């Protein structure tokens, strides 16, 4: 494998990793938000099922 | 039943993402001109294209909110939740497009960034929706949702400009692969992996959009309960 091909490979890997870091980072933030909401809802007695969509 | 359906959808999405990755890395041929780096197309283009769909969801939500905010306040809240969720997922997808693009550009063009029509209009689109999210996060008062809806509608006006930018102006960014001039298109050996990734990322986007929408509806219920508790106190 020549140097250009190695660099291409590294850049491609970097792009794929960045994609997953952003997507999974967002999901992690969403999960934290969801958990905080669950605690808050329990404190206030808000029932997701009862209030419906 | 609902839990089973959600579990099934999550499973299908994960399988699609793994399959998409396999297609992009092991099935798609290496581009004759660009080599290995061209495989970024299977992640970059779906994210850029799908961000338009999610900004479209935000547009519909914003219009719906403005249309129903006086006559059907409860329905307006549902539209508002869609508007916020669409904008947020759109920003996530657009962020991926704006970061993978320069990584690709550095190898293909030798530069990380250029003030090309497509890149600049996409950055403006991203900035508008980031402003939208900041407005939602930090502004308070009864007019916040209305202002956000108006900003969401104005932001969506940039979507067709981004789409047409590399048709109207020929600069650094490549000409459109789909719906471009005569001779544009993708080789069938690359088209199949591309479409699988498009489908996989669409399924993923819909999944996180649904989760974000449910979270926002719950937030609205909490806000209502808090207001009620404050009045009763």
Description:
- The complex is a heterodimer of chains A (53) and B (233).
- Chain A has 53 residues and is mostly helical.
- Chain A has helices at residues 3-44, 48-51.
- In chain A, 87% of the residues lie in helices and 0% in strands.
- The mean pLDDT of chain A is 88.
- Chain B is mainly α and 233 residues long.
- Chain B has 7 helices and no strands.
- In chain B, helix 1 runs antiparallel to helix 7 (188-232) and helix 4 runs antiparallel to helix 5.
- The mean pLDDT of chain B is 93.
- The interface between A and B is medium-sized, with 28 and 33 residues.
Shape of chain A: rod-shaped
Distance between the termini of chain A: 56 Å
Beta-strand content estimate of chain B: under 5%
Average pLDDT figure of chain B: 93
Kindly report the greatest chain-chain contact and the residue count on each side.
A-B, 28 and 33 residues
Output the helix-strand order of chain B: HHHHHHH
**How many helical elements of chain A?**
2
Major β-sheet annotation of chain A: none
Q: Measure the end-to-end span of chain B.
A: 39 Å
| Estimated structural class of chain B | mainly alpha
SSE order of chain A in H/E notation?
Answer: HH
What is the strand and helix layout of this fold?
The complex is a heterodimer of chains A (53) and B (233).
Chain A: H1 3-44, H2 48-51
Chain B: H1 2-27, H2 41-68, H3 73-108, H4 117-138, H5 144-156, H6 158-168, H7 188-232
Helix pairs in contact in B: 1-7, 2-3, 2-5, 2-7, 3-4, 3-7, 4-5, 4-6
What descriptive keywords fit this protein?
heterodimer; A: 53 residues; mainly alpha; 2 helices; 87% helix; B: 233 residues; 78% helix; 0% strand; globular
Question: In summary, what is this structure?
Answer:
The complex is a heterodimer of chains A (53) and B (233). Chain A is mostly helical.
């Amino acid at each position: 494998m020549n140097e250009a091909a190695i660099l291409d490979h590294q850049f491609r890997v970097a792009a794929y990793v960045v994609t997953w870091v952003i997507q999974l980072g967002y999901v992690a933030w969403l999960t934290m938000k969801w958990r905080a909401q669950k605690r808050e809802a329990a404190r206030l007695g808000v029932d997701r099922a009862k209030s419906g969509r | 039943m609902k839990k089973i359906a959600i579990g099934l959808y999550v499973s299908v999405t994960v399988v699609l993402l793994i399959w998409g990755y396999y297609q992009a890395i092991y099935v798609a041929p290496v581009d004759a001109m660009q080599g290995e780096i061209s495989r970024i197309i299977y992640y970059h283009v779906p994210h850029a294209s799908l961000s338009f769909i999610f900004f479209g969801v935000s547009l519909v939500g914003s219009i719906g909110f403005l249309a129903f905010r006086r006559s059907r306040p409860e329905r307006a809240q549902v539209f508002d939740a869609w508007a916020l969720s669409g904008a947020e997922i759109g920003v996530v997808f657009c962020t991926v497009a704006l970061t993978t693009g320069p990584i690709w550009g550095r190898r293909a063009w030798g530069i990380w960034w250029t003030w090309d029509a497509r890149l600049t209009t996409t950055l403006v689109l991203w900035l508008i929706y980031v402003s939208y999210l900041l407005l939602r996060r930090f502004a308070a008062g009864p007019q916040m949702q209305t202002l956000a809806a108006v900003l969401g509608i104005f932001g969506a006006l940039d979507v067709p400009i981004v789409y047409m930018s590399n048709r109207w102006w020929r600069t650094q960014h490549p000409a459109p692969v789909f719906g471009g001039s005569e001779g544009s298109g993708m080789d069938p050996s690359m088209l199949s992996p591309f479409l699988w990734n498009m489908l996989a990322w669409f399924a993923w986007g819909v999944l996180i959009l649904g989760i974000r929408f449910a979270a926002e509806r719950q937030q609205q219920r909490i806000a209502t309960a808090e207001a009620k508790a404050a009045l009763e106190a």
